[in-house]
Write a structure and sequence with these properties.
This protein has seven helices and seven strands, in the order H-H-H-E-E-E-H-E-H-E-H-E-H-E. It is an alpha/beta fold and 203 residues long.
Length: 203
Amino acid sequence: MINKYPSVLLENAVNEFAKLPGVGRKSALRLVLHSLKRTQEEVENFGQALITLRKEVNYCRICHNICDDEVCNICSDSTRDPSTVCVVENIKEVMAIENTGQFHGLFHVLGGIISPMDGIGPGDLQIDSLVKRVQTGNVNEVIFALSATMEGDTTNFYIYRKLAGLNVKVSIIARGVSIGDELEYADEITLGRSILNRTDFNA
């Protein structure tokens, strides 16, 4: 059944909200109607925040995390251990691991995982820059903290092969995170223990 809207403006707004992941048309309509209840200033602030984010967002030149400057606050923190690098899919995993308070090394954000079905190959990810970080000789351990899915395991294996021959320990977070689970949905205690109880990666 085709939804009929009393206004083309309303329909256009619903169409844009419905493009967001996990937002269906009913949810999009609720969000749009909620926005109409806000003051014009609040809506403009909301819109401007998104526009400014898209225009001015930076990516750390070291780890590719989202940041405001050339280097993120994690990479520039002198109290962190630069010899340990945790490989994650995106910023959501960085935030999840940081919330555990159990990891004090640095990160490397791939920007996704290998997924041929979605047209994402190794060349679309920040894998080469990870290899270059390890080749500097300053990294002693690389920790795989990707989701326990087939795509995540494929990415782990690919990176492991790329790091072969380099003098670096490769480990993987303990499988306290269930097979098939997305890392961002793991609770902080489970995720924290998975980091602490990481094991050697044996392909």
